[in-house]
Specification:
Helices cover about 40% and strands about 25% of the residues. It has about 300 residues and is of the alpha+beta class. The longest helix is centred in the first third of the chain and has 20 residues. It is globular and about 70 Å long.
Length: about 300
């Protein structure tokens, strides 16, 4: 396919620097949308779209920060639907509404980490006809502590346990407790209506040492409390973290240096699309990623 071999790193850098990064990302979005529509016909049930940001640590901007790319990933079909760039980690809050406008969220569930628990983002998802499930942490201090206090005295509407599961040298048991947020969230008008609270608790035993650890997390969602398997929605969000892990381990993204945010964004566009098409590991995936980078630049 490549008669003269894979281009040198310096050549790839020059080409990526010369391509308009917004046009490149939009081309990727259109490309992904075509396959998304086809593959989705073979799937049934509710589609979940996971949203999260990733810093490109191989590139350092003039400000000393790393470019940050926010991705919308569909784990059910393994495709990144769209990406949006921001220059500071805190700017994910501003990038997310733009990303949501670029994808169809109607009738789907958006999952995100605690940074996305912002009124503008919640309003945007609701306005576009979607639902959400977002982790709740101390960045929404009053809401978090209010729920923590009230959940202690309330009996969950539903509760179920998954596990024990063995893997990665540990035995893990997960418990989910589902609460109606009607009497737990005082400022319901701010968040656009009623919400459901999901309390997640994991009990982990490490087989090598026998050490036991317990972790608790809180999630809020616009889905009804009787939605089947809300815990599965919680766990599905971790798939985007696995996708980002693949970019670093298989394609070694954080080790690749670029001199500008534009080149870094174009590299991420190529890598993100490569990671959705291939699921091998190690050197084979890295080799295919280089070939895919060349093909994308040709297109």
């Amino acid at each position: 396919m490549l008669r003269n071999g894979v281009p040198s790193e310096a050549t790839l850098c020059r080409i990526e620097q010369g391509i308009d990064e917004l046009s490149m990302a939009e081309r990727m979005r259109e490309f992904a949308h075509t396959y998304h529509s086809r593959l989705l016909k073979d799937k049934s049930g509710m589609e979940i779209i996971c949203v999260d940001g990733k810093a490109l640590r191989g590139t350092v901007l003039a400000s000393g920060s790393n470019p940050d790319i926010v991705s919308a990933y569909s784990p059910s079909i393994g495709i990144t639907l769209a990406t949006e760039a921001c220059h500071e980690k805190s700017n994910e809050i501003k990038a997310l509404p733009r990303l949501i406008d670029r994808i169809d969220v109607a009738g789907k569930v958006i999952t995100a980490d605690a940074m996305s628990m912002q009124k503008d983002i919640i309003d945007k998802i609701r306005k576009n006809g979607g639902d959400f499930l977002i982790e709740l942490k101390a960045n929404q201090r009053s809401l978090r502590y209010e729920i923590e206090d009230r959940i202690k005295t309330r009996k969950p509407l539903h509760s179920y346990t998954e596990g024990a599961e063995q893997g990665h040298g540990r035995i893990e048991t997960r418990t989910y407790r589902i609460h109606d947020g009607l009497g737990m969230i005082a400022d319901r008008e701010k968040w656009g209506g009623g919400m459901t609270v999901v309390e997640y608790e994991s009990d982990t035993v490490f087989k090598s040492t026998g050490v036991r650890s317990t972790e608790k997390r809180l999630y809020v969602t616009s889905l009804a409390a009787d939605t089947p398997m809300l815990g599965a929605v919680v766990r599905t969000h971790w798939s985007i973290e696995s996708m980002h892990w693949g970019l670093d381990v298989n394609l070694q993204q954080d080790r690749i240096k670029r001199r500008s945010g534009r080149a870094a964004r174009n590299l991420d566009t190529i890598h993100t699309e490569s990671s959705t098409q291939y699921s091998p590991s190690g050197k084979d995936c890295a080799r295919r990623g280089l070939t895919e980078e060349k093909e994308w630049l040709r297109l």
